[in-house]
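Q: Please design a sequence for this.
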């Protein structure tokens, strides 16, 4: 923001564009995002296991969805 305000005196006509010495996004941001997803993949897997399977390992997602639909009059099974 400071750089933008400091460059204001360089504007001499309406619509003029002044390039600032910044790069967005920062170089390498894609690798950082991929690394974050890879490091957190186990969390997603654990969440899916908790919601899709019971303690005995039985797949319960369809039954849970059908039960949840009975809680709302507007929901369809």
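A: Design:
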């Amino acid at each position: 923001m400071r750089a933008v305000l400091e460059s204001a005196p360089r504007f001499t006509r309406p619509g003029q564009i002044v390039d600032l010495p910044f790069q967005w996004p920062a170089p390498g941001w894609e690798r950082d995002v991929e690394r974050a997803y890879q490091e957190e993949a186990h969390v997603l897997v654990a969440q899916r296991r908790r919601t899709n399977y019971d303690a005995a390992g039985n797949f319960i997602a369809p039954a849970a969805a059908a039960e949840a639909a009975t809680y709302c009059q507007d929901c369809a099974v």
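Q: Thanks. Anything notable?
A: The helical segments are 2-7, 29-52, 61-69. The chain is about 50% helix and 0% strand.
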